[in-house]
Hints:
The structure is a single chain. This protein has helices at 2-23, 27-42, 46-49, 53-60, 70-81, 110-114, 118-134, 168-181, 200-207, 261-270, 331-335, 339-349; strands at residues 90-96, 99-104, 141-143, 147-151, 155-160, 187-191, 215-222, 235-239, 250-254, 275-279, 289-293, 299-303, 305-308, 324-325. By secondary structure, it is α/β, with parallel strands linked by helices. It has a domain at 110-210 and 245-284 and 319-349: 2-enoyl-CoA Hydratase, Chain A, domain 1 (Alpha-Beta Complex). Helix 8 links the parallel strand 5 (155-160) and strand 6. Helix 8 (168-181) packs parallel to helix 9 (200-207) and helix 9 (200-207) runs parallel beside helix 10 (261-270). The N and C termini lie far apart (102 Å).
Amino acid sequence: xxxxxxxxxxxxxxxxxxxxMGAELSAPEKNFETLWQTFHERYAFFKLRGVDxxxxxxxxxxxxxxxxxxEELFKVFCDxxxxxxxxxxxxxxxxxVGKKQTFNSEDNPRFFKEFNTGKLEKQFGSMVAATLKAxxxxxxxxxxxxxxxxxNKDYGYLFITEFEGVSKRSLxxxxxxxxxxxKGIKGLIVDIRLNPGGTDQCVYQITSRFADKKRVGHHRKxxxxxxxxxxxxxxxxxxxxxxxxxxxxxxxxxxxxSFSAADxxxxxxxxxxxxxxxxxxxxxxxxNMLEKKLPNGWKYTLSHQxxxxxxxxxxxxxxxxxxxxxxxxxxxxxxxEDPLILKAxxxxxxx
Length: 351
């Protein structure tokens, strides 16, 4: 009797184990569940971006089985993430058909549609330089890799290439050099067109050179759970003026290929009373990118933070508005003049 019971118990145990093993997810399914769940818990903008994430699960989960290939899985992920239209949503596949593949969910910015080749972008840069030269500006110089500058008798020009890539100390030296060579100017053009972004630390270090007084820079909260309202407490950061500043008239040039930290920089600069923004709204992706890795080694990023201006406005998906709307178009290359530089000089001459 005891032996019969033992056999029965062992049989039940084997059945349970077999059932559990049979319920295990295959590798493709596990990768799907991991990606979907991470976005479910940490992505901050489903409502703003108009995406029903539960519906995305119901639509795309059935397409993934134990037989799904890497190529098919990559396409499923791209199709599921594409509606977010968020430049901070990226996917990097280790190796597909012998090569790496990358995906970004963002709609191509208007500027890149207008200047849609590397050659045209280079011609755009040459046009900017030629316009400055025609207005008496000196040859452009570099003060660190981030700062390119020149000046004429009355006005200065500062192109910020990005907001990362040099040490805090090197950037400080570069800023001192730029401002020393700008002494005596009546106004300054700051250009962040084609700026891909960087870090808040760099943004604040540069902006401190233009701040007139201590101000609230921005507020930020971080998504930390699956619920729509599961965020960290709001954190506030102040903008402090540096010892050596320029607070004369400033024109900031922006367009929709001014991304991420460039968005934050424009948001801070917009609050300064001596700054006028010319161009078009920035791209509108403010969050730091949260990077994660799937079980198969693929890496992905997402926006997990909500940034607010000093007066608690969220510009995500909209970008920082401009005071004077003016677009760069391909026809500018035929004329050989940058209309934004010309307008900036006109505005500064009226200050």
